[in-house]
Amino acid sequence: MLLALGGSLLLVACESSKAPSATGEASKQQELLVVSYAVTKGAYDRILPRFAADWKAKTGQDLKIRTSYGGSGTQTRAIIDGLEADVATLALSADVLKLQQAGLIQPGWEQELPSGSIITNSAVAFLTRPGNPKGIRSWNDLVKPGVTVVTANPKTSGGARWNFLGLWGSISQTGGSQQAAEAYVTSVYRNVENLPKDAREASDVFLKRDQGDVLLNYENEAILATRTGDLKAPFVVPELNIRIEGPVAVVDQVVDRKGTRKAAEALAAYLFSEEAQQVFAEEGFRPTNPTVWAQVKSRFAPVKQFFSVKDFGGWEAVNKTFFDNGGLWDRLFAKSR
Fold it and tell me: Taking a C-beta distance cutoff of 8 angstroms, is the pair 54, 270 a contact?
């Protein structure tokens, strides 16, 4: 990962002298770096070339788009430490807020694009072994004796934070007390043998290394694994679930320094287009474009009740309570070992 990130930095540095100024010359090639979380690669491999072709047709400018993928928390830290992302599409708005707090993104980014700048939605899915021999169908089944759970590390993975909130909300959103939620989540993590760094590595641990009885991961990862044949059993999407929201933001400090704002803003807006949203849907993400969602919603498992990060007070409160150093995650993880 460090080598990959370093390579991205070097490539951006070498090419930056070719970028047009803020007033720009359309004839010169321009470069964008899109930094995202691990499981979006399949979608962006299809979407970004289409945008570059569309940009060329509209402006006459050649656009080189580089990408970097990894755990959302790791990617966020890399941007803060100097990875020159023009566009950040991270796993949760909390990570974009960290970029804002670091002075890289201006406040109000959520209002700049449709759906509060949320490109995709998803849900937590349970991936099980063929035939589901442990009978894992609900949140409560994760604490059964002898069940081994695979989930990524909330310190490095945005998907793992969504999993954590799904676990917690399965108690708190059904009338359970904080004490009951703490006891339940601690019991689940006692059944976790290791914590991969991101959602894609968690999939590999479960599907390719055959570790664990159940994997908690993004619904889109379950759809992908089913399509490729890596997952042999139907997966479970609990009817009570957390609405997973994937945001996009232009990194203001970077685009203003590089003179890439116009192209970066156009790319961010393009991600909400029907063309891009159809690709997201085909890759297993729930689109936020209402027209596309109406066309594809029958492909996705029905969820009777979604709760959201707003039900926990928003990301600033969630980070402070659960994931900051010394927060509930640290204390519950210590109890579960």
Answer: yes
